[in-house]
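Final report, closing paragraph on structural work. Over the funding period we assembled a curated collection of sequence-structure pairs, and we close with a single example.
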Amino acid sequence: MMAPTRNAWSAIVRSPLGATALVLMVLVALTAILGPVIWGPQAEQVDPTAVTQGPSAAHLLGTDTLGRDVLARVLVATRLSVVLAVIAVLIGVIAGSLLGMAPSVLPRWAGRPIAGFVNIAVAFPGLLLALFFAVIFGVGTTGSVLAIGLAMAPQFARLTQTLSAAIAGRDFIAAAQVAGVSRFRILFRHILPNIGEPLIVNATVAAGSALLAFAGLSFLGLGVQVPEYDWGRLLGEGLNRIYLNPAAALGPAVAVIIAGLAFNLLGETAAAALGGRSGRRRHRLPAVAQPAPRDAGTVPAQVDGDDVVLLVDDLRVSFPTPAGWVTPVRGVSFAVGRGEAIGVVGESGSGKSLTALAAARLIEQPGHVSAAGLDFCGVPVLTTSERTLRPLLGTSLAMVFQDPMTSFNPTRRIGAQLAEAASEHQDITRRAARERAVERLQSVRVPAAARRAHQYPHEFSGGMRQRAMIAMGLMNHPKLIIADEPTTALDVTVQRQVLQLLDRVRRDTDAAILLISHDIAVVSQTCDRVLVMYAGRIVEDLPAADLHSAARHPYTRALLEVVPELDTDRSLPLRTIPGRPPAPGAFPVGCAYADRCPLATAVCREKDPALVADDAGRRVACWHPVTATPAPVREEEAVR
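Its predicted structure, as stored:
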């Protein structure tokens, strides 16, 4: 875990939570340090003429049975109360950490009894353990410190045990063991530094609980003894005279609350800083870069306005980073017509999935989506309220994800989850929704659909889960199905079945399909039109029928050339595209494909080409588009 930066700490301190924690901790610390020095003599001064008096100008909380000022004694008791709580927490952290880390480094026969002891001890309430140890160690300050410290040890042991188990399986632990590093060196050099921060956060919060525990033991007479006194002892003395002077009991009670609140807020602040939550959220970033004026004619005109299901015009998706905003999707424009199947292809990181998620309004904060136009079924997605847009997206948009196992709730039956998709947006009974779920499973050719509807996701094979995912999308009446890598994890036979199913659904329901895939061959055989994306932009848009014969962008050509054919010579190495795509935060000034393109010239590295449409409606963004189909590569050239 990375240490928080100075900016993160300063941002947290400026927050209401951080500022409150800081003020309270400074107040408690100053009182603990200066209290005995400033108010010590007054707290010990006996005045027989002012015995058990109520609040007055001279004694704001009154006096005790010996005429001593109660407020002064409360302030002086801060040091002992806080110091004892901190010592008890240190004992609990050290003892608990040793017990928790022991199973990770000791032999199995020695570690299992320790883990079992920790599990048994955690089952007992902390206060009960403290009373048990207090009886063993005896009455007094030392016994109370040991009792509370050891009572806190099991919870730290459980925390340390969990954290250590996660670290013990890492590769660097195995490497240290192979290198012959001793178990105790592994414990203190490799495991403990990686779990230190969570322990510190929990120890800070536990200090507040220790204060309350000490007050309880002293109140019962098991803690601090005369002539010493802490807040718990003062609280017990005050309660004996609560009907004569309630303020005498109120003072130490408020002190316990303030100190406990200070430690708990400090723990919350430390957790926010060490976890990077507040620091990242409150860190001021430059505003999202305003998009440059988009090129005219970027939105294709092949789709008639009345048939447009999804219109995307100059879409940009940005995310904040410590160095500023990064825009992995920059200026994407396309339209999807009713009943049309469009494939989106490109290497990983080209922005395909982010484009689909933005169209479905699934980009969450702190991500930022902007567009000159983003309309679904004629409704602007970015400016319409979620309450208005939710019924439209829920009934007219379906998404099929790459791994349906993560999209289904593993604790609920498939039929119930499909039925929920219909009952959420349609006025139908639960029974009717479940009957419809069975019908939809039958429509996607799930065998024994009625029985399968009562099964859980883990009882389905990968192909069946994907079919069930498509069935869930069909529970309503989708006008657009976004399939994000729906066949990546499936074998070739099941992949073909899923693609045929999507095509049949499109023909039967007239729903449009946006198919995202790495496999350009699959897209060319399944879709009507192909969008080729690279580095967050569409570099080519053309009909799938023209893909092999009329592709003009060098990147599209490269994607086609690396697809192996059945007659490919297996003695030759498979062809690849040289180089790597640029990272989203490091896009070059000119064409992003220039460094990998054999046709690149100086202009390609100076200016990004616009996406221009030709007379046939095909669009390409390239300074040197290919004008003729290249000749087949000879074997001797491929070897070179």
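Residues 1-5, 276-284, 290-297, 630-640 have pLDDT under 50 and may be disordered. The domain at 305-411+456-563 is CATH 3.40.50.300 (Rossmann fold). We thank the funder for supporting this effort.
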